[in-house]
Design a protein that fits this description.
Glutaredoxin; about 55% helix
Amino acid sequence: MDPSQQPILYYDLGSPYAYLAAERADTVLGHTPLMQPILVGGIFVERGFGSWSETPQREQGIAEVEARAERYGLPPLRWPEGWPNNTLKAMRAATWAGGRGEGHRFALAAFRRAFVEGADLSRLEEIFAVAEPLGLDPDELAQAIESTEIKSALRKATEEAWARGVAGVPCIEIAGEIFYGDDRLYAAQELIENRSAEV
């Protein structure tokens, strides 16, 4: 695939729907997406409303996520205590890991730690536990997530995502077209196949 046509998966590690998309994207799309960390909280501010997790629809939403995971053949979800947790530092860590060529592996490992193992990614030790098996140095990570460079990179990525039409997570972008929701992976796959057939 032409690198300019590589799917982009916009995600926040606090989103269970983004977890469902990240686990299935390679298989459904037939291509490994570029994992683009963004702050969904920044998107909430831009769009003027937040997550269903803090509304009367919370229990219904949790049940729907769990049903989808089962339908997709994924492990039963374990919800981190206090979810939704503050994933700001985890998303800075994801931004840093991406710059070191480990964005995809870090994202998948972090999602599994949160939603399969039930870990709270607002805790720095849990972020270290994701990073160390990937060969990422915890001391470097700790410095990076407090650096102006990483903070600015994540903020810029979020602003650019919103400008491109990303209204929440997960979103898949293919050749400038945005597909919002883990249930849109097959629509994204269809676009990839159609574009391939045109070449």
